[in-house]
Amino acid sequence: MPIDWTLAIPIIVGASITFQGATGSLMGKLGGNAFSTFTIFAVGLIPGIITYLADTRGGSTVNYSAGFQSAPWFSYLGGFMGPFAVFSIVASIPKIGASLMFTVMVCAQLASAVLFATFGWIGLPKHAPTTGGIVGLCMIIVSVIIIGSSKPTAAAAVADATDLVAEDVHTVIVESAAAAKNSTISPKLQEEDDSAERGSLKPPTSPSTIGFAEYAFYLVLAAFAGASGSLQAGMNSTLTLSFNSPSFSTFLVSVIGQVPCVIAFALEYRKTPTDFKAVWRETPWWCWTGGIISYGIVMMFAYLPQHLDISVLQAALVTAQVLSAMVADHYGLWRLQVNRITVTKAAGTVLLVAGVVVLSVLN
């Protein structure tokens, strides 16, 4: 059976989503989450304009009047779904980690996709769920529970730092003892001074924990981000069919997406003004490329369903997304907080991938 190398595209895009989330989170720490989301979609608009003008010969091949008449009202809301998903990713990763965030997101994305297809919502054709699909979805839900119950494991660097601090404390004690011989300070006062100095050299603490209510909030936010991904895929597909132009529908979605981005950033800036000079000075150059990935995701769902079965496309995308998030968490790539892969988390990931395969193949 020949290999369809088009499958490499959703794998690359799925892995790139983790990179986008990491860069967006880093930029969010420097300039604010709404500013980061606005920047991502503003950058993504650039390739959208170029592709639209090149593919439609300057817009001359698109039947705009027929498209606007036939496109249902809800299909234009896809532009709002993308910014919400990106904002959720940017805000949630620093709180619950990339691997758990994307795992919950994928679970909600697949569950909502099955639900929408079952009832034929947002213009999707009805597709009754099968036994294999239900089994696969249950496997995915269980995997999320397993991964979520895995306690975060900080990097070994914490232990190394502890050893380093212990050496520094030992040096301070020796130096203080030597200085005490030549000092007129009483032994008692010297001992208190040494004790205070040692107390100030505490080893770095483990990654900070958040309360249960905040933890639950970001889990729900991740779930809504996944559901919005399924909504956007269906809406964008409907918009593409109405205008018969994937490039124009992608461009239109990008333009509509600027509206919530600008509003959210304006509200954020009013409360906490962004220091643009500091952001420009401290943000790594690769953080500014995250918008290209958003554009790639929308274009992928506009073009690839003509070449790949949608279930295979979805399976390749989410599997690459979760695995790349797990690796990025484990090694602290792109300045993410290091969260080592545990046996429990690895078992949950294997079950997740198996559930995705079962859901895609047997549904």
UniProtKB/TrEMBL annotation:
InterPro entries: YdcZ. This is EamA domain-containing protein. It comes from the Eukaryota. The lineage of its organism: Eukaryota, Fungi, Fungi incertae sedis, Chytridiomycota, Chytridiomycota incertae sedis. It comes from Chytriomyces confervae. Keywords: Membrane, Transmembrane, Transmembrane helix. One of its GO terms (cellular component) is plasma membrane. The chain crosses the membrane at residues 6-27, 34-53, 73-93, 100-122, 128-147, 215-235, 247-265, 285-304, 343-362. Residues 184-205 are annotated as: Disordered.
